[in-house]
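User: I'm preparing a small set of examples for a lab meeting where we compare how different chains pack in three dimensions. I only have the primary sequence for this one, and I'd like the structure in token form so I can line it up with the others. Please keep the answer compact; I'll paste it straight into my notes.
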Amino acid sequence: MINFFRRIRRNLADDNKPLKYMRYAIGEILLVVIGILIALQINNWNEERKDAQKGIKVLEELANNIEYNIENIEKYIRKAERFNEYSDYVIKVLERDIPYSDSLDNVLNSALLNLDDFHFSDVAYESLKNMGSDYIQDDVLKNEIVKLFDESFPEMLKMFSWSSTSAEIEYIDRNFFPVSGNNNLILKPYDFDVQMNDTYFLSMIHKRKIQRNFFNTRMRVVLEESQIVLQLIKEKLQNQ
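Assistant: Understood. Below is the structure token output for the 240-residue chain.
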């Protein structure tokens, strides 16, 4: 190997071509450097493409979650409005001393109880937090998603903890008993005549109606916010 380089050096010296060799060596070095830079750039492009694909997948999953939540909110609003109609009917029965009948059972049950079985899906958002929110490059969209899932949905769920006080639960347990009806349990009064003359019971029915109206007002705000975020996500996906 040493003899090989000695021959190259001797040939260069004999041919008086050291400058040409140096240019050749520098060119080779530049080619190697350029090759490395190109390889790094290709690798970066591949990583960016993978990140973009992950971002698209996360946005699609977020859109599915939000669509599910929108559907649930709309169902809740419709159900609460129907229960308020029952409340109005029970209030009319109480205030006009209309005799009790078995057909009043379901209406009374719906008028007396609050809706507290609302659930929202945040699986995709939890996945996004674990991955890192940088997969969503649009800062405006990112902030809207965070606000919706970290603030609006949790605050909405807190409302349901206000639905019944311990005194109200105790009152219901003392004056009503559960019976089977329409594939679920309903509450039936031990003595409806007592309830008809109980101002506390009437005030509970009024309170439930006020609560549902308040909940629905807040639900509609979150519903509109969800629809806006969903539209932003869909527009972002269309532009990918």
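A couple of notes for your slides: The chain has one domain: 55-238. The CA atoms of residues 67 and 230 lie 7 Å apart.

User: Perfect, thanks.
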